[in-house]
Amino acid sequence: MRKLALVRRPGPRVAEGLVTHLERSPVDPDLALRQWQGYVDALHAEGWRTIEVPPADDCPDAVFVEDTVVVYGDVAVISRPGADERKPETAGTEQELRGLGYRIEHIEAPETLDGGDVLKHDGTVWVGLGGRTTPGAVDQLRTHLAPLGAVVVGVPLAKVLHLKSAVTALPDGTVIGWDPVVDDASVWERYESVPEEPGCHVVVLDESTVLMSSAAPRTRARFEERGLRVVAVDIGELEKLEGCVTCLSVRLRGAPGPTWDPR
Ligand SMILES: CN(C)C(=N)NCCC[C@H](N)C(=O)O
């Protein structure tokens, strides 16, 4: 697996980020930046290289770079974020992925899609249909990804911001979720619930390693019991803005395109 990820450092207005399903609590921008740096350092320590997307400092939520794109194989589908404040965030991501040789597609108006609603595993792409992503955008995504063999499935989402606020997948494909915010766990053949909300978000670093929040120690212990190695990071300031570990990067694991330039 190629270990390369896009990240975007938090801007000066990060504390003004959107909150939808949480009570707003004060965010310390300096601590948020240090925690983001800790996340990036953890990726580097695990052998990942990172590329910083140019800042979008007028957009408080720009650090949640995952929401700006869906990358599958050599295609990058640039999102059209559901929140108007976030729409300008996509330009920098597009510029970076175009430079890397990805084939660029777009979610077109009036439809909207946030990358945080998209969970991929082994050829299946589940897309949460909640407050940010529309059914028409799921159809557009299917049009772009079906030629690559992906099966794109819309799933209900009412209780949280994004699909990946509720569920993510372990390296073996087991989907893990925090039951109180999962609308319909029967969507997944292999589903397991975890005991803590921040525990349902993992970033797969390799076949036996996951990155997760340090705010879920009981879930961490469970993952370790099943033989996974866990890298835990404190991203508390970003969690106050409904962020999680997945939102802070776009992992570029797919097959390189014909014009791929590893830089
Ligand atoms: C999987 N998740 C949760 C994400 N990919 N993104 C989180 C975005 C949070 C931001 N304050 C917002 O409201 O847009």
From TrEMBL:
Keyword line: Hydrolase
Gene3D superfamilies: L-arginine/glycine Amidinotransferase, Chain A (3.75.10.10)
EC number: 3.5.3.18
Top-level taxon in the UniProt lineage: Bacteria
Gene Ontology biological process terms in this record: arginine metabolic process; citrulline metabolic process; positive regulation of nitric oxide biosynthetic process
One GO molecular-function entry: amino acid binding
Class of enzymatic activity (EC top level): hydrolase
Active-site residue numbers: 162, 247
Database matches in NCBIfam families: DiMthArgaseDdahStm (NF045660)
Family statement: Belongs to the DDAH family.
Official protein name in the record: Dimethylargininase
Protein's organism: Nocardioides marinus
Source taxonomy: Bacteria, Bacillati, Actinomycetota, Actinomycetes, Propionibacteriales
